[in-house]
Specification:
Layout: H1 31-41, E1 50-51, H2 52-59, H3 63-75, E2 79-81, E3 86-89, H4 94-101, H5 105-121, E4 124-131, E5 134-141, E6 156-158, H6 163-169, H7 174-183, H8 197-210, E7 213-216, E8 223-231, E9 237-246, H9 252-271
Antiparallel strand pairs: 1-3, 2-3, 4-5, 4-9, 5-6, 7-8, 8-9
Helix pairs in contact: 1-3, 2-3, 5-9
Length: about 280
């Protein structure tokens, strides 16, 4: 397991929420399915074992409904309980994620390019997409260098303080960016985090102008990452590719000079394989 810096940054995934009121009266919307998925997403690295009461509080779903969801998921083998009170996800859920990853052309096509970048510069290289207001890692090539936050396929991080997040946010329309800023609480993880709407807007202007993003200790001291956008043949930004390292291996500008040519080459070649 790879870690970034000295400690894991406590980042919650996009919060599981019960069905929105806007679905009320929609005969095609399955509230029970939505609730079951919200319960699954209620588990996290920080809360791997949870009670009915804890899940109810976190998801906003009534306890009786949470209990029925857990009973169904348990019968299907997706959750288990050793003491009858606290539940945990089981490895069976990996099959659902594998079905997506093994059938997604972007993930399949990207892996050789991530591996090539990682081998060339001896740092980990990742691909992520926007998922709600976070970035979601879909593919990774991990170097042998140990760095410290657990990052694996399926990990989520806030978009506003990550290099991939910046290249993805920079591709949004003004209206889309306004909507994002109206929803997200900007937390200052470090003194360099763009923790106000104007600071983030200013940073995204620079990202658009130079064509890449540099996250120099925005989420955690000592951690630097560089990202480039991945476009399909129509020019639409569909993902971001980044390299992540520590400040002890060079200044931020040295990291950019070392990694950027490899990232741009990988993004250009991978883009040629993507359908518009």
């Amino acid at each position: 397991m790879e870690r970034l810096g000295r400690r894991a940054v406590p980042v919650e995934p996009a919060g599981p929420t019960p069905p929105r009121e806007s679905y009320a009266g929609d005969p095609n919307f399955m509230s029970s399915l939505a609730r079951g998925l919200a319960v699954i997403r209620g588990f996290s690295m920080e809360q791997r074992r949870m009670s009915i009461a804890q899940l109810s509080q976190k998801t906003g779903i009534p306890r009786a409904a949470v209990r029925r969801c857990l009973y169904t998921l348990s019968e299907l083998g997706y959750v288990a309980s050793e003491d009858g009170r606290h539940y945990a996800l089981t490895p069976a859920l990996l099959g659902l994620g594998h079905a997506y990853l093994s059938s997604t052309p972007l993930v399949i096509a990207a892996q050789p390019y991530l591996d090539r970048v990682s081998e060339a510069i001896h740092e980990s290289c990742s691909l992520a997409v926007m998922a709600g207001d976070d970035i979601l890692y879909l593919a990774r090539s991990v170097s042998s260098r140990i760095i410290s936050i657990s990052l694996n396929v399926g990990s989520r991080l806030p978009a506003y303080c990550t290099s991939i997040g910046h290249v993805l946010l920079a591709s949004l329309s003004p209206a889309e960016l306004d909507g994002y800023l109206s929803r997200v609480s900007l937390v200052a993880f470090t003194g360099r985090t763009p923790a106000t709407p104007q600071a983030l807007r200013d940073e995204l202007i620079q990202v658009r102008e130079r064509g890449y993003a540099l996250a120099d200790q925005l989420m955690e001291p000592g951690v630097v990452s560089v990202a480039v956008p991945l476009q399909d043949l129509s020019g639409r930004v569909v993902a971001g590719i980044n390299v992540i390292t520590q400040t002890g291996r060079g200044t931020a500008q040295q990291v950019v000079a070392h990694a950027l040519p490899h990232l741009r080459a990988a993004a250009t070649e991978l883009a040629a394989q993507l359908l518009p």
